[in-house]
Design a protein that fits this description.
7-stranded parallel β-sheet, lipid metabolism, 46% helix, oxidoreductase, 3-dehydrosphinganine reductase, endoplasmic reticulum, two-stranded antiparallel sheet
């Protein structure tokens, strides 16, 4: 059974590159990878935050005497940033690109669509959330597929057989990339786009069997980060009403559940029961983790979503009547 239950994303001795790695979920993921023996490269805009984050990551290292850590200052919203970052990380790794890339830089700016600054916010959300991930995925895939960057071999722990060790691209979407809400028009489309990109690439990487590449998608709920505080600063009251008693998850909980799903080889990883229901309701042509269960529940959820959508539409209409200016 060891062959079937193996870790699908081992990180020990490998190098992971994490965007948004100076705080929040990105820093949490970097710390977990360090604790599992990985070398870690973090990317963020602010040097001071990167320096503090590296110290925090180093404290979690499983093998401090051999593990290495590196920080790169870059803005993921800047066109062309990713090629420079991948080149920097590759040079730091003695000419070999990182084997694992997790795109975690992101933000949310909920606003009503008719507000004055909404379009500006929507463009910036797309620049950070979608283009930041899209550019990084293209840059790292090109680096992996260069001549001479063939698949390394990894030994299984039990069968003592050899198999190609896959590279990994991990995208970070949101439960709102399966089911959008009023007030999230500036944000949700960027995450829908990330999900669509991941679904496309999971098929496209099959063209390169000589360099196995695994594409993964994490769909978290709200997370207790500074970013969540900034999100709530612009969130309309009607959006709060639609979200109901949304209790954000801790960084440690989200990272722990995400890494566990990645190690199990799951494609689309949610971090809560409600998130799982939302995933089932909108799977489209996304890969299934369990064809029978996902298809069965996915066939039932549209009927449930009829009532959920009706209730949400009623909430919006009621809120508008009660809050319409006299």
């Amino acid at each position: 059974m060891g062959w079937f239950n193996h870790n699908h994303m081992p990180v020990e001795g490998r190098t992971s590159l994490i965007t948004g790695g100076s705080e929040g979920t990105g820093l949490g993921a970097a710390r977990v990878f360090a604790s599992k023996g990985a070398n870690v490269v973090i990317v963020a805009r602010t040097l001071a935050k990167l320096d503090e984050a590296i110290k925090s990551i180093e404290n979690e290292a499983r093998s401090p005497e051999t593990q290495r850590f590196h920080a790169i200052a870059a803005d993921v919203a800047e066109p062309g940033y990713a090629e420079r970052v991948v080149a920097d990380a590759t040079a730091w790794k003695n000419g070999q690109p990182p084997e694992i890339v997790w795109c975690l830089a992101g933000l949310a700016t909920p606003m009503l669509w008719t507000e004055g600054e909404t379009m500006k916010a929507a463009r910036y959300n797309m620049d950070v959330n979608y283009w930041g991930s899209a550019e990084m995925s293209q840059a790292i895939m090109r680096a992996w597929l260069l001549p001479g960057q063939g698949a390394e071999k990894q030994k299984t722990s039990t069968a003592q057989l050899y198999r190609p060790a896959a590279k990994h691209i991990i995208f970070t979407g949101s439960v709102l990339s399966t089911f959008s809400l009023a007030g999230h028009a500036p944000y949700a489309p960027s995450k829908f786009a990330v999900r669509a990109l991941a679904d496309a690439l999971v098929q496209e990487v099959r063209m390169y069997p000589e360099v196995p590449i695994e594409v993964r998608l994490v769909l978290p709920n709200s997370i207790t980060t500074v970013g969540y505080e900034r999100e709530n600063a612009t969130k309309p009251a009607v959006t709060h009403a639609l979200e109901g008693p949304d209790t954000p998850q801790s960084v440690d909980e989200v990272v722990g559940l995400s890494v566990s799903g990645l190690e199990k080889g799951r494609y689309c990883i949610t971090t809560s029961f409600v998130g799982g229901l939302m995933r089932w309701s909108a799977m489209g042509n996304s890969p299934r983790d369990n064809w029978f269960v996902d298809t069965l529940i996915g066939s039932v959820l549209p009927w449930i979503m009829l009532f959920v959508t009706w209730d949400m539409n009623k909430t919006v209409s009621s809120w508008a009547k009660e809050n319409k200016p006299s």
